[in-house]
Amino acid sequence: MPTVDHKDPNSVTLEFEIVSWLVNDCKSGLSPEQFVNLCKKMVAHRKGQ
Questions:
Q1: Is the dihedral of CA 30, 37, 27, 46 positive or negative?
Q2: CA-CA distance, 9 to 39, in Å (whole number)?
Q3: Would you say the pTM of this structure is higher than 0.70?
């Protein structure tokens, strides 16, 4: 399901994007950098690294 999310909740401008509800729920209160790092860890785990 699609949902709307802030691109960067710490930004002074309001920028929104359409994302999947599941990804938005996983991202939760993480910064964009923290979320990318989490994704990289999940991919590495999936590859068995």
A1: negative
A2: 19
A3: no
